Amino acid sequence: MPDLAWTPRPDELQFDAIRASGPGGQNVNKVSNAVHLRFDIRASSLPEAVKARLLGWADQRITADGIVVIKAQDSRSLERNRADAVARLIELVQAAAHVPKARRATRPTYGSQQRRLEGKSKRSSVKAGRGRVLD
């Protein structure tokens, strides 16, 4: 799966307008322009492999029930915060869609082993020369 060109369907997203925290004067107490985006992984249109990888992550944005909760409050505009939350959800899903290449165990080369041991013996002799001088 090279790049997952996935966008969530509108019926898969649930937005809740909440009051933003932080500075903003009186306006921040009156206007609900921050957004909580809720996205149910299990009930989504994602491929099964991506769902499994997302559910296996230990991410604080993913609840035990398999719901992604993203809070967006950077902008003063509700629409921009919604767009930011959706963009962050897509970014999260694309990160889960990326399958890391399996690491094959390799052995260190003979030359690298010799260089390591030579460095250790040099360091040992430097430290041994730091002892107390006896006259």
UniProtKB/TrEMBL annotation:
SUPFAM superfamilies: Release factor. It comes from Pelomonas lactea. GO terms for molecular function: peptidyl-tRNA hydrolase activity. It holds the Pfam family RF-1. Residues 101-135 are annotated as: Disordered. NCBIfam families: PRK09256.1. This is Alternative ribosome rescue aminoacyl-tRNA hydrolase ArfB. It is an enzyme of class 3 (hydrolase). InterPro entries: Pep_chain_release_fac_I (IPR000352), Pep_chain_release_fac_I_sf (IPR045853).
